TrEMBL record:
Name this protein carries in UniProt: Branched-chain amino acid ABC transporter permease
Subcellular location per the Swiss-Prot or TrEMBL entry: Cell membrane
InterPro entries per the UniProt record, alphabetical: ABC_transp_permease, LivM-like, MFS_trans_sf
Pfam families assigned to the protein according to its UniProt record, in alphabetical order: BPD_transp_2 (PF02653)
TM stretches of this protein: 27-47, 59-83, 103-129
Organism: marine sediment metagenome
GO molecular function per UniProt: branched-chain amino acid transmembrane transporter activity
Record's keyword annotation contains Magnesium: no
CDD domains: TM_PBP1_LivM_like (cd06581)
Length: 142
């Protein structure tokens, strides 16, 4: 599944011509994504024991998710985990230090991080290790 999705990402027409069922791989990837999204929603509903549309469909949830991915780095499992930790740490520090302007300070800090570390923490760490000549494990596909 992992190699099929990677080949679709690289060139869908070439993957299709090599015999990879691109429709199947896309549907399976979508189903896996939908499973984990619905699992998160079910856990959230159980934890809150109440769901209100203005809380669940808040645009800031999507914005925070994208910012977490940008900080940690896309394309890995560890990147968003590190990004979530750093985002929450940064959010709490700015909230406690700059009470009135915490959103502005947080936004400027995130813009600076994204501007100077475009690959995220994981991508920058990987690049540093490659420059030093250290070999990293190859990515494991599903």
């Amino acid at each position: 599944l992992g190699f099929g999705i990677r080949s679709i990402k690289a060139n869908e027409e070439a993957a299709n011509s090599m015999g990879i069922n691109t429709t199947y791989h896309k549907v399976v990837a979508w189903a896996i994504s939908a499973f984990f999204t619905s699992l998160a929603g079910a856990i959230y509903a159980y934890w809150m024991s109440f769901i209100a549309p203005d809380e669940v469909f808040d645009v800031m949830i999507a914005v925070n998710t994208i910012v977490i991915m940008l900080i940690g780095g896309a394309g890995s499992i560890l990147g968003p985990i590190i990004g979530a930790f750093l985002f929450e740490l940064l959010s709490e520090v700015t909230w406690s230090t700059f009470l009135e302007y915490h959103l502005a300070v947080l936004g400027i800090t995130i813009i600076i991080i994204v501007f100077f570390v475009p690959k995220g923490v994981i991508g920058t760490f990987t690049d540093l290790m490659k420059r030093r000549g250290l070999k990293l494990r190859k990515k494991v596909t599903i």
